Amino acid sequence: MDATAAGGAEGTAQEIRLDGVSKTYADGTVGVERLDLTFAAGELSVLVGPSGCGKTTTMKMINRVIEPSTGRILLGGEDVTRVDADRLRRRIGYVIQNVGLFPHQTVRVNVATVPRLLGWDRRRTRARVDELLATVGLDPAVHGDRYPSQLSGGQRQRAGVARALAADPAVLLMDEPFSAVDPVVRERLQGEFLRLQETVRKTIVFVTHDIEEAVRLGDRIAVMSSGGRVEQFAPPAELLGRPANGFVADFVGADRGLKRLAVTGISVDDLERPPVVHAADGLADARASLQAAGARWAVVLDDDGRLHGWLSGERAAGPGTVGSASHRMDAWVPVEASLKTAFSTMLQHEAGWVAVLDGEVFLGVLTPESLHRALRRSVDGTVPETAGAAVPAR
């Protein structure tokens, strides 16, 4: 989907800057302490922390559902505390936990809400609605004329995202949007949303209480404590590898090393290169290769360098070809995957190593030892980090 197709310049991602923003209620309660935060254009920034720490208050001040007590909120350099609040909200997409679809209106009418308010003509509106429904995985012909009550929870959430994106806003605010669905649907929605963000590249502020969700989705994460204080604002790998203080360390959990696997990509430099034989080779030649390398097994490739399987030393005996004696290799991941995906694949197949492929081309293998080295290197900041890098293995 072209991010500017329907909204022109309005669809271009814009930086959000909170400059000395605070919220103090009439009874003296401090909802949010003085905040100085910058949410980079085109990035997904997550606000995470315990209940009552001011996450949602901070987000609602951006679109002025809650008015700040002090400070400025700059959207693309413009101080939005000085503009008409209704006009502002039409420029900002908003997705909430319970979706908020109008129950008496069809999905198509729900998604068209903001374009209609902006005065778009019917033809342009319908084209945009159909495009977005298809983008979020809802067939316009099937789901467009249904009512929210006729959709599953996951489908309603997709419709809510489509409605928020309908006028191609520069900014998207999301308040625990996936917490009301079951874990399986939630993980699927998170994956779909990451793929959508790769296309639209909106500036997103995302609120959650779940550090696992924050780590999977966020380009940067702000950990907040009571009173609306930001304890640390950093990329997931830095947050997990170097918590700023005891509060952050406790919040991200003692298993933060395992969580870090999810945000650390595979580096080709970390791969081991075991002996390689080809399916058409004779077993006698393969046995000689294994003996020369002092290895107990070899990777088997076809003539085009694609993964065929693996051959154990015990089966490299007698007449015949490598292909006829090799084992099927199910433990593999694409090079774009995270270390978590590699580790999970290793455990799932009870394998001592996992092959890494670039498309169909074999690059090398990760073993528990090389995976540990890769993780240690990522703590030192020398391995590129990824957000939401999990890719299903076949």
TrEMBL record:
<feature type="domain" description="ABC transporter">
    <location>
        <begin position="16"/>
        <end position="252"/>
    </location>
</feature>
<keyword id="KW-0067">ATP-binding</keyword>
<dbReference type="Pfam" id="PF00005">
    <property type="entry name" value="ABC_tran"/>
</dbReference>
<protein>
    <recommendedName>
        <fullName>ABC-type quaternary amine transporter</fullName>
        <ecNumber>7.6.2.9</ecNumber>
    </recommendedName>
</protein>
<dbReference type="InterPro" id="IPR027417">
    <property type="entry name" value="P-loop_NTPase"/>
</dbReference>
<keyword id="KW-0813">Transport</keyword>
<dbReference type="InterPro" id="IPR003439">
    <property type="entry name" value="ABC_transporter-like_ATP-bd"/>
</dbReference>
<dbReference type="GO" id="GO:0005524">
    <property type="term" value="F:ATP binding"/>
</dbReference>
<dbReference type="GO" id="GO:0016887">
    <property type="term" value="F:ATP hydrolysis activity"/>
</dbReference>
<dbReference type="InterPro" id="IPR017871">
    <property type="entry name" value="ABC_transporter-like_CS"/>
</dbReference>
<dbReference type="GO" id="GO:0015418">
    <property type="term" value="F:ABC-type quaternary ammonium compound transporting activity"/>
</dbReference>
<dbReference type="InterPro" id="IPR046342">
    <property type="entry name" value="CBS_dom_sf"/>
</dbReference>
<keyword id="KW-0547">Nucleotide-binding</keyword>
<comment type="similarity">
    <text>Belongs to the ABC transporter superfamily.</text>
</comment>
<dbReference type="InterPro" id="IPR003593">
    <property type="entry name" value="AAA+_ATPase"/>
</dbReference>
